[in-house]
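Thread: Modeling a multi-component assembly for a lab meeting

Hi all, long-time lurker, first post. My supervisor asked me to bring a structural picture of a complex we are working on to next week's group meeting, and I have zero experience with this. I have the sequence lines for every component (610 residues in total). Could someone generate the structure of the whole assembly? Inputs are pasted exactly as I received them:
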Amino acid sequence: MTVIRFNDALRQAAHALQGLNLPEQPKPRLLRDVYGRLRYALDCAAADYPADALAAMQAAQSTLGAYATSGEVLTRDSFSFPDRVFSDPDWHLTRIDLGADEDGVHRGEALLQVLDRQVTGQDWLRPVQSAAEQHRAHRIVFFGLKGGVGRSTALCMTAWGLARKGKRVLLIDLDLESPGLSALILPRDRLAEFGVVDWLVEDGVGQGDSVLPRMVAASPLGESTVNAIRVASATGQGDSAYLAKLARAYADVPSEHGPQRLGQRLQRLVQSLEAQEQPDVVLIDSRAGLHDLAAVAITSLADTALLFATDGAQSWDGYRQLFSHWQQRPEIARRVRERLNIVRALAPKSNREAGVQRFQQRAYELFSETLYDEVPAGIEPLHDDSADAIFHPADTDDAAPHFPILIDWDERFQEFDPKLRPEDGGASPAQIEAAFGALLKFTEARVEEGVA
Amino acid sequence: MSAVLPPSPATPAVPPVNYVQAAKRHMLDAEALRNDNRHANAGQLYGFVAECGLKALLIVCGIAPDANGEIPSKHRLRQHVPLLPDRIVAEGHLIPDGTRAGQYLTSLAHLGDFKDWSTDHRYWRDTAIPVHLLSTWKQAAEEILQALDQAKAAGVLT
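Re: Modeling a multi-component assembly
Sure thing. I ran the full set together rather than chain by chain. Output:
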């Protein structure tokens, strides 16, 4: 007997339904549990569904082997509050590739409502409302699959550039497991009394609001700019209990409307800081890698997500995994893809043109094969009216998500201290412009669009 | 070769205790009594919904039930409300799976709302029972049933 593995289970569960004689409504759904096991679910009482159809679904479910949660097909009778379960916002219409038949002929794909119950990672699929819908400042998240790609330095330079143009800038360090932003942008004695981790712990006991006014400090980097740069660090001044707090920071906390998850809590924190600080733009340093904190930052907080990459397999493979996760849920992919932008970090100066071309082509292929819509045969996406609803920018479209924002490698910015004045070994405005000019121009335009 | 022994009378094939079913049953009856204005006994049943629901969640969180399907006798968490929720918070180290406990137990906002509820109410005269707390008890019991729904959807309660 063939052993069913994780990847086969969803495909087999979807394929098995196609051979069954089921009523038109309600459409069968799939609930995938925390172990990846599956059950069919029907939004009706068991008694209102034909008994033979229900039995056929139970039989199909049993063929999933270790990937069937149980023999039970879920109905409204399975729950005390079925409305809450069946209207959960985490149900997503999901594309399931049905694989090939015995003759190798591809079976196409099925589109089913799937509810994924996960221990972590749920926030990759919870997109935020836009800044305009929520009447708030534009948020830019800086993300990298790994550290060491110059992300935090780029964030500091962006803050400086935007403040110089008269924007009120708020920085929030959500890289809680590698808190470094504040060290880069604030002298130790200028740190605020409390950090983000303090808010998370205090919020757990219902008093997050009391630390809010004492968790933002002004950076000396803003002393030479028109407007101040305000910083909410991960840690507070002189904190010797950071790890003890971090161990408790991610807990769900009780609320009137059920437990509040980390994603909801961080959204509340960012909204509270925005209400208090009234910034024009919020720059968020995200944790690196495919971690829950990054999921919250990119999907649930960002209006613009800058995805830092170098031209290596680690970058491309990692982003392909993430984009495929969205691609399988078309409605999420549509909401997320236009806020993304690839940043080519640490671009080498030797063979620059060829390297840039190659990077741009790889980024284009990645987006084309995952998040951009497929272009039906016979339609010219750029010149055909019927292509209006198809999102598939050309490879040369410099406003498209795949079109890389370039940051050239410059040894001056290795182990760089942005707090230093040029005369003390810091960088001059012209030098910053030379390396980060494209990023500054891009972020300024994004913030202006948001204001408009 | 050892002979196959018949099951001992002390270990029934199907354990009689099923906390999930019991919680749901008490809820249905509590609602029926409340709708019929029989608030004193409705209140008593909401407390049993909470007790059974919490015990079901404790098993989800790794406490091994005995042969009857119950939290073992002499276990510190084999209690009625209001002592049971107090001990869940104060003696959380007794719960093997702390991650699940954080998800299903300690994130219940109304866990403390049974402080004026007592099993002894079954002996009390009508006017002495604090039936003005009925809606509070109902809300707290519903919250626990919602946590059971979540555990069911997550596949940790089958």
